[in-house]
Amino acid sequence: MDYPILKASHAGLAYLSVMLFSLRAVLSYVRPDCLQGKLLRIAPHVLDSALLAAGITLAVWAGLSPHAQPWLAAKLLALVAYIVLGYIGLKKLHGSPLRAVVLVGALLLAAYMIAVAKSKMVWPF
After folding, report:
1. C-alpha–C-alpha distance, residues 41 and 34, integer Å
2. Which of 55, 79, 100, 118 has its CA 20 to 30 A from that of 3?
3. pLDDT, tens digit, 9 for 90 and up, residues 76-107
4. How many CB atoms lie within 10 A of CB 60?
């Protein structure tokens, strides 16, 4: 596999991951029982593992380091915050009015990561 194909795969996986997270967030309100199905419990982990593996491979192939590339460090910090907010929003705040705020915050972080990846700037807006 060459770099452009891996880069396109990484981008496609990122979009799929955000779409799946969005679907799970909506389902957590309208059909929470659906989230207990095997597919929606396993697919996010498989998809996100492939996304992370592609991202790490791209960084290694391109010789990028979060220490030398501030945009990459910002993207990784945003990834950690996205995971934490997603976990809290989907697993811990059932019935809380803060749940929607946390889930929207996670989606905003996902949008930020995509914008950073495209612009290679810490503040792409």
Report:
1. 10
2. 79
3. 999 999 999 999 999 999 889 999 999 999 99
4. 10
| Assigned token pair, 58 | 């791209």
Please state, as a whole number, how many other Cβ atoms lie within 10 Å of the Cβ of residue 32.
12
- Tracing tokens 């929606």 back to the chain, one arrives at 40
Q: Distance between alpha carbon 106 and the CA centroid of its chain, in Å?
A: 8
Residue 66 phi, psi (nearest 5): -60, -25
Q: Give helix then strand counts, H and E, for the chain.
A: 4, 0
Residues 6+ apart with CB under 8 A from 87: none
**Three-state secondary structure call for residue 25:** helix
DSSP states along 78-117: HHHHHHHHHHIIIII-TT-THHHHHHHHHHHHHHHHHHHH
- If you search the block for the tokens 């946390």, which residue do you land on? 102
Contact call for residues 61 and 92 (beta carbons, < 8 A): no
- Domain ranges across the chain: 3-119
Helices 38-62 and 3-30 pack at an angle, to 10 degrees, of 150
